[in-house]
Write a structure and sequence with these properties.
Length: 370
Amino acid sequence: MKILVVNIGTTSLKYRLYDMESGAVMAKGLVERIGQAGSCPNYEAAIGQCLGDLPISLAELSAIGFKAVHAGPVTGARLVDDVVLNAMEEFTFLAPAHNPPYIAAMKAFQSQVPTVPLVALFETAFFGQVPERAITYSLPYEWKELGIRRYGFHGASHRAASERAQELMGRKDVRHISCHLGGSSSLAAIRDGVAIDCSFGISPQSGIPHNNRTGDVDGYAVLFAMKRLKLGVDEMAAIMSSKSGLAGLSGGTGDMRDIEAGIAAGDHRSQLAMDVFVRAIRNYIGAFLVELGGIDVLTFSGGIGENGAATRAAVCKGLEVFGIELDAAKNAAARNEAKLSTETSKVGIYIVPADEERIVARAAAEVVAK
């Protein structure tokens, strides 16, 4: 069985082709600057380029899998049909950077390869067993019918980290905090491979600060700013989803590499952005330590989690009382998957490179097999 997994960005298309029998990646590629002048004009062209570069014929393709983000109550791994697309349209306001390009790409694939099943694995799927108390907002109870609740995202990454953490610990009964830190960041509390909480709320703009998205913020701060600045709902939504987060704090791009360079140059706003980011991560680690009753393993994934030694050190500073002991030398030298904890640490600390595409490929294969 051959599964093509497509990861859609606002101006990019990444793909991997899996041979599910062997687990091998047969091909991978990236189409960038979609829709920009002088580059790939649209998703139709990007998809044509992707399909044309595959080392197999389209007749050999069993399915195309997508790491879809938000469709409210429509979750899990689903064949892409009108129900899925309509639900994604309905929740686009909550995922403005993710849903529109995914919808456009899915429709383009439907047009270009109508005989190949399309499967969406929603990022919310991993959080299907989170207790009701952890997904319910203290808002009018009736609003739950509008889909207003906490969902959780980055599910494929956290699931992959959970599975690898169990392998590294050599057992299934593992209390685990998974930190996916990158352009978009989140933490998940996982017990025995099952997510019981997540830093995300109703949208990917929530939780800890992201590259240019807010993270958690008091709703009244937003309402107050709207009244004072005379901003409409859509204007404020655009600010929260594209001009906030680490970029809004630092005044730069929000890229952690730029923030670290600013810190080295003595820039106060860069240092503040880092401090706010680390504080938010530590707050969720503290909450999840209580919820799990302690932890056995702490993992770091994502661009910052895998490459940001300074961020990892700041997150783990002073946590020895909880059995979390980071080895400074190991942390500074770490590349790819690595153990970062000291030999005496009660908690295993690891870099676990994000492996979302494998999770999507497996889910797509299971759907088409049924």
